[in-house]
Amino acid sequence: MSTAPDTTTPTVPVEAPAHPPIKLLGRADAGGCCGGGSCGV
Amino acid sequence: MSETIKVDIWSDVQCPWCYIGKRKFEAGAALFDGNVEVEYHSFELAPDTPVDFDGSPVDYLSQRKGLPVAEVELMLERVTGIAENVGLHYDYDSVHQTNTVISHELLHYAKAHGRQLDMKERLLKAYFVDGRHVGRIEDLADLAAEIGLDRDDVVRALTAHDFLPDVKADVAQANAYGIQGVPFFVIDGRYGISGAQDPDTFAEALRQAQTEKIEEKNA
């Protein structure tokens, strides 16, 4: 049985594209559209 | 001294609040004493929708959201009234519910040809006001030609899905930002504004971003 490390399986999760942090402004209840249907039409 | 402020907007062609938000953002930008550069990005609210949905928007929303027809009708009546307040005359009786992925491809095509803003406005008006179909290549090519784009080349690019990777990249970026609803505005990469906010909110965010940008430059 081989004891060599498995190099075929990634051990680090794929990261989302990097972006700088953003600060949210404005009212939380402004009209918008969501795929899941939780925020207005 | 004025700095150009970049605004990235995630939006879907069949989102009524996106058109209202566009008008409110434009009003806010008009209140801002500076230069604004706008770029639209793709957000697919319902990527599983067929190109030719067999039913009305009321049927669609009722089925999708699991709401009674009467409640959906009230929602559409409300949003139609809000649209009127910003000068948009929505006609839900003539809307063709569809899949918008190819219209997003067209927006990227238009961006590559320097006409994205005109195309965005034309597509929103086509869908909400004019009762035009925005899910089929031939119909989209007609709309593109109306703003002066090369109809034959549009048909070629949309048939080949040349810009589909750009659409998917926008969707991935939206996920990275944690965007769950649209319209969503990212002001100069610093501030996020969700929904069709009042013009003053946009104007203030633009001023704030400009102030910070100038301070950073002078630091």
TrEMBL record, chain B:
InterPro entries per the UniProt record, alphabetical: DSBA-like_thioredoxin_dom, Thioredoxin-like_sf
Origin: domain of life: Bacteria
Pfam families named in the record: DSBA (PF01323)
DSBA-like thioredoxin domain mapped to chain residues: 7-206
Matches recorded under Gene3D superfamilies: Glutaredoxin (3.40.30.10)
Protein name: DsbA family oxidoreductase
Species per Swiss-Prot/TrEMBL record: Cryobacterium sinapicolor
Upper classification of the organism: Bacteria, Bacillati, Actinomycetota, Actinomycetes, Micrococcales
